């Protein structure tokens, strides 16, 4: 039997659930040595539901010589400091999105991982949904021909009580609003599929539906990687919330990716359909989605460590998507 990878999980908030389920599915490959958080509020629940060892002593969890990798699920403003500590101990890190609250801090985090010679992965799991995987293969094979246009729409909903949580939607803790905290998953997928070479125009706003520091609506005109036109819209003010949609128009056909479901429609009359059964968390129930994509992302991270390669969603990949968020916000500030 192969040796299992020792893992510590730091942070037991909302993001913990799909990771815990995924790690339980992967127990033949990983050993959860610690589930750690600075507060003991959720420790007993985690211990009883998942049978993970728990602690409020994060230093102890990170220093454990049997821990080879750390999954950081703590607030975004803690990522740089915690990840740097992990790197100094020779630990690989899988970091919840975003990398940190600013591009500058994110760049420092990615650079520290490279300098330490460890693997850095980021939790942008939309790339691992079945429809996303099939669409990427179709694009790589040239099935749609030359891409002539593409659009992204993220019509999500969050009630006010979601933003009433201390720190939610603030720059000091989350780093931003809908673009960096919710739509980053879809933005990362969109950018990785068709590229974004330029943000031509943008608008951001905080609608009357929310009381919050950062934006809950953003729209942008962009140039794709090949120079074709594209549009991006993201909001958490679209009640009751719908699955995010990516549309790609090519010379040989078009693609419609809705959540994890895909419809490829080619000019020769053929179609290929992948049904979406996983959910997206686009409504008030923010964790109402399958953990399958998380499991596949974590599995790829373990593979990357064993194979001494970068994970599919590397630090550099996540940094490119965070730079796109910043470019949209910067363009909006130019015209405000």
Protein described:
- With 336 residues, the protein is an alpha/beta fold.
- It folds into two domains: 5-125 and 295-312, NAD(P)-binding Rossmann-like Domain (Rossmann fold, 3-Layer(aba) Sandwich); 127-288 and 317-335, 2-Layer Sandwich (Dihydrodipicolinate Reductase, domain 2).
- Helix content is 35%, strand content 25%.
- It is built from eleven helices and 14 strands.
- The chain has helices at residues 16-25, 43-50, 58-63, 79-88, 103-116, 130-140, 160-163, 178-182, 184-194, 292-307, 315-335; strands spanning 5-10, 30-36, 54-55, 69-72, 92-96, 120-123, 147-155, 196-205, 217-224, 229-235, 245-250, 253-258, 261-266, 271-274.
- An eight-stranded mixed beta sheet has the order 8-9-10-7-11-12-13-14.
- A hairpin with a 4-residue loop joins strand 13 (261-266) and strand 14.
- Helix 4 (79-88) runs parallel beside helix 5, helix 5 runs antiparallel to helix 11 (315-335) and helix 9 (184-194) packs across helix 11.
- The termini are far apart.
Q: Which shape, going by the Cα principal axes?
A: globular
Distance between the ends: 60 Å
Mean pLDDT: 95
Kindly give the count of domains: 2
Flag low-confidence runs.
Answer: none
CATH class of the largest domain: Alpha Beta
SSE sequence, one letter per element? EHEHEHEHEHEHEHHHEEEEEEEHH
CATH-defined topology of the largest domain = Dihydrodipicolinate Reductase, domain 2
Main structural class: alpha/beta
Helix content: 25-40%
Question: What's the architecture of the largest domain in CATH terms?
Answer: 2-Layer Sandwich
Q: Using only CA atoms, what is the Rg?
A: 20 Å
How many runs of DSSP E, i.e. beta strands?
14
**Numbering strands along the chain, what is their spatial order in the largest sheet?**
8-9-10-7-11-12-13-14
The largest sheet is: 8 strands, mixed
Strand content: 25-35%
The CATH H-level homologous superfamily of the largest domain: Dihydrodipicolinate Reductase, domain 2
Alpha plus pi helix count: 11
């Amino acid at each position: 039997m192969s040796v299992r990878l020792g893992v510590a999980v730091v942070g037991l908030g909302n993001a913990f659930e799909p990771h815990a389920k995924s790690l339980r599915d992967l127990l033949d490959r990983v050993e959860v040595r610690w589930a750690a958080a600075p507060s003991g509020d959720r420790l007993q629940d985690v211990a009883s539901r998942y049978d993970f060892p728990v602690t409020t002593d994060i230093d102890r969890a990170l220093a454990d010589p049997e821990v080879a990798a750390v999954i950081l699920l703590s607030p975004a403003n803690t990522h740089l400091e915690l990840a740097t500590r992990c790197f100094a101990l020779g630990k690989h890190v899988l970091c919840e999105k975003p990398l940190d609250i600013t591009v500058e801090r994110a760049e420092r985090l990615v650079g520290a991982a490279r300098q330490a010679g460890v693997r850095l992965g980021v939790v942008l799991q939309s790339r691992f949904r079945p429809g996303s995987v099939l669409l990427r293969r179709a694009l790589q094979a040239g099935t749609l021909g030359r891409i002539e246009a593409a659009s992204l729409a993220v019509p999500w909903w969050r009630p006010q009580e979601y933003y009433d949580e201390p720190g939610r939607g603030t720059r000091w803790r989350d780093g931003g609003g809908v673009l960096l905290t919710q739509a980053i998953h879809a933005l990362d997928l969109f950018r990785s599929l068709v590229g974004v070479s330029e943000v031509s125009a943008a608008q951001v706003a905080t609608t009357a539906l929310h009381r919050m520091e950062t934006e809950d609506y953003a729209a942008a005109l962009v140039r794709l990687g090949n120079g074709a036109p594209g549009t991006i819209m993201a909001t958490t003010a679209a009640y009751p919330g719908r699955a995010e949609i990516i549309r790609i128009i090519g010379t040989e056909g078009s693609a419609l990716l809705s959540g994890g479901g895909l419809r490829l429609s080619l000019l020769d009359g053929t179609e290929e359909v992948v049904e979406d059964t996983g959910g997206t968390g686009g409504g008030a129930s923010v964790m109402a989605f399958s953990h399958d994509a998380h499991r596949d992302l974590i599995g790829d991270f373990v593979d990357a460590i064993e194979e001494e390669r970068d994970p599919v969603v590397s630090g550099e990949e996540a940094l490119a998507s965070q730079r796109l968020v910043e470019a949209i916000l910067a363009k909006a500030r130019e015209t405000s």
